[in-house]
């Protein structure tokens, strides 16, 4: 049980909650921190506290962050620590505290997964039964351009992002303050009837928020609720948040809307509105660092009464090992249920999730050592800080608890440069969805368009990697398919593609197009043909290779996902429109 002896809110910016001891920090307006030693010199995690506070203060200053908070737990020691910095609202000088409410974006998927697994434990749901058995209206998603059959999609596939379902994006997914559509979940399945499958189910992990939205609908439906939003909110309130004492947490933001930290661009400028996710189970949860500490204790083996330790262990397993390239490619995240196995630079792993909307989060669980870290900020400029700070706290805590670094250095020799034959290099060339075209230029393997401004040369190394100025690359062939992975950017895995050269049928689509959305004109897209005769579609400076499907449809083979999206061009009353993967039609004007 959590025994809080003391709590302090210092001046305007810091609050600390500890077990069995007390520590605090004093901050001036420039975020400069002076650590105050605890009353008990031998208290646990003194170094972790000093390092965490100093690192947070530095990140606040360097990244110009309005507000930030974190929680740390060691379930074996019964140790809980929360710390807060800066402002929940700069304009009113409202400080961040351990009870400040943040939206945690995609980290909410872990709670949706817990709700699903509670139904599995209760015998209401089977992981490998097709979703259509429980939701008959979820059937026959149209236009499976890349293959697949939605009738075969299972609950397990939704949990692990292997269903092949494409994202339902656009204004159907998020709403400004005052405009939250409480009926969005009720309309989710009808909206999906225009949604293309982006790939065959169960053959690759492609992150899909829409799949977690469908899981929330499934939970509500199985529990007999006709209103899926209210049903999902009621189920999670009654079966997760209330039993864990998470009194400031919910998937319904209405009760806490006035308490949510104001989203900021930086330490000075607030956004004019909040964005709330209509597809609530995928990222619409609000909570506090104090509540997240309670959740971490439960997930790490505390007596929680919510879900069994055996089920938690099963959720945390790698459930995508059956997908060869994802399981073996260096740098790739492996999928559990609502969480991922997160690789770190030295070969270490944690389990958890991150989230990014207007608030940004990072969540680590170290099951081996019983340690958990959660970091959240309300500033866009602070997005990089969540991973940096979580990693710093975790690594320092492991060292302080065990006397050893997270991963012991190995005696393996450093890789050296080797030479590849012309045939070996030629076997790697081609177009990759992540990085563009890999070519041989003057005897060197080069990604000419990877950075967009300069070529990236790859140097083959003895450990099988390819070293470049921007990090390490790996290549692997699985059956007849070649993949490339970036070691410096986690989960960036691309597939070599053989896009169809453009035909005269798309000539009327070439050029610059502006987009009208709800009467307002926005910068749009550029459709062109590159030197290889392939269609290139540019969005805001990011180029995507497109494959022609028919006279009016292009399949975009995107960089960051193995397979991208589908756009259908239609003429309506003589005006060209673009329908993007189930969104409302966009009016194009050149």
Task: Based on the model shown, name its key terms.
590 residues; alpha+beta; Beta-lactamase; eight-stranded antiparallel beta barrel; 32 strands; 21% helix; disordered N terminus
Question: Could you walk me through the main structural features you see in this protein, from its secondary elements to its overall organization?
Answer:
The protein is α+β, with helices and mostly antiparallel strands and about 600 residues long. It has 3 domains: about 105-400, Beta-lactamase, CATH 3.40.710; about 420-495; about 505-590. Helices cover about 20% and strands about 30% of the residues. The strands form 6 sheets. Strands 1, 2, 5, 6, 7, 12, 13, 14, 15 and 16 form a 10-stranded antiparallel β-sheet that branches. The chain has an 8-stranded antiparallel beta barrel with strand order 17-18-19-20-21-22-23-24. It has an 8-stranded antiparallel β-barrel with strand order 25-26-27-28-29-30-31-32. Helix 1 (about 45-60) packs antiparallel against helix 11, helix 2 (about 110-120) packs parallel to helix 6 (about 210-220) and helix 6 crosses helix 7 (about 230-245). The model is unreliable at about 1-40, about 170-180 and about 325-330 (pLDDT under 50).
């Amino acid at each position: 049980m959590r025994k809080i002896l003391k709590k302090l809110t210092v001046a305007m910016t810091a609050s600390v909650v500890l077990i069995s001891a007390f520590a605090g920090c004093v901050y001036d307006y420039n975020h400069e921190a002076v650590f105050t030693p605890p009353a008990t010199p031998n208290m646990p995690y003194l170094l972790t506290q000093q390092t965490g506070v100093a690192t947070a203060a530095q990140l606040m200053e360097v990244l110009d962050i309005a507000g930030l908070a974190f929680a740390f737990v060691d379930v074996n020691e019964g140790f809980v620590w929360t710390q807060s910095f800066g402002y929940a609202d700069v304009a009113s000088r409202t400080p961040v505290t351990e009870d400040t409410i943040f939206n945690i974006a995609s980290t909410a998927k872990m709670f949706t997964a817990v709700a699903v697994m509670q139904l599995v434990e209760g015998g209401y749901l089977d992981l490998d039964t097709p979703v259509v058995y429980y939701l008959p209206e979820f059937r026959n998603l149209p236009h499976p351009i890349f293959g697949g059959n939605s009738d075969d999609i299972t609950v397990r596939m939704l949990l692990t992002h292997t269903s092949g379902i494409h994202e339902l994006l656009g204004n159907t997914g998020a709403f400004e303050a005052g405009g939250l559509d409480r009926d969005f979940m009720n309309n989710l399945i009808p909206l999906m009837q225009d949604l293309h499958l982006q790939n065959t189910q169960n053959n690759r992990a492609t992150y899909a928020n829409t799949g977690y939205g469908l899981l929330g609908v499934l939970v509500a439906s199985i529990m007999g609720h006709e209103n899926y939003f209210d049903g999902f909110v009621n189920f999670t309130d009654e079966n997760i948040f209330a039993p864990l004492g998470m009194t400031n947490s919910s998937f319904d933001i209405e009760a806490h809307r006035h308490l949510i930290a104001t989203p900021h661009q930086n330490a000075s400028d607030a956004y004019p509105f909040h964005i709330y996710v209509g597809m609530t189970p995928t990222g619409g949860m609000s909570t506090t660092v104090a509540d997240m500490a309670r959740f971490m204790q439960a997930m790490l083996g505390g007596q929680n009464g919510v879900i069994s330790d055996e089920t938690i262990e099963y959720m945390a397993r790698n459930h995508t090992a059956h997908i060869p390239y994802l399981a073996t490619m260096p740098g790739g995240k492996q999928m559990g249920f609502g969480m991922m196995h997160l690789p770190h630079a030295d070969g270490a792993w944690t389990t958890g999730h991150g989230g990014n909307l207007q608030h940004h989060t990072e969540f680590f669980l170290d099951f081996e050592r019983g340690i958990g870290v959660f970091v959240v900020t309300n500033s866009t400029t602070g997005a990089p800080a969540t991973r940096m700070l979580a990693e710093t706290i975790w690594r320092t805590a492991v060292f302080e608890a065990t006397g050893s670094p997270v991963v012991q250095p190995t005696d393996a020799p450093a890789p050296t440069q080797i030479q590849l034959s012309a045939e070996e290099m030629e076997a790697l060339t081609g177009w990759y969805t992540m990085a563009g075209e890999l070519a041989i230029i003057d005897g060197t393997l080069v990604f000419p368009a990877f950075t967009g401004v300069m070529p990236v040369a790859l140097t083959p190394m003895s450990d099988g990697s390819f070293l470049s100025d921007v990090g390490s690359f790996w290549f692997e062939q699985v059956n007849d398919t070649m993949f490339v992975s970036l070691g410096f950017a986690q989960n960036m895995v691309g597939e070599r593609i053989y896009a169809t050269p453009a035909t005269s049928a798309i000539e009327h689509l070439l050029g610059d197009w502006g987009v009208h959305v709800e009467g307002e004109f926005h910068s749009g897209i550029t459709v062109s043909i590159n030197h290889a005769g392939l269609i290139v579609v540019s969005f805001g400076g990011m180029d995507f290779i497109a494959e022609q499907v028919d006279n009016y449809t292009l399949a975009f083979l995107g960089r960051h996902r193995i397979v991208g999206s589908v756009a259908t061009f239609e003429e309506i009353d003589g005006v060209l429109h673009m329908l993007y993967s189930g969104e409302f039609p966009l009016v194009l004007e050149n």
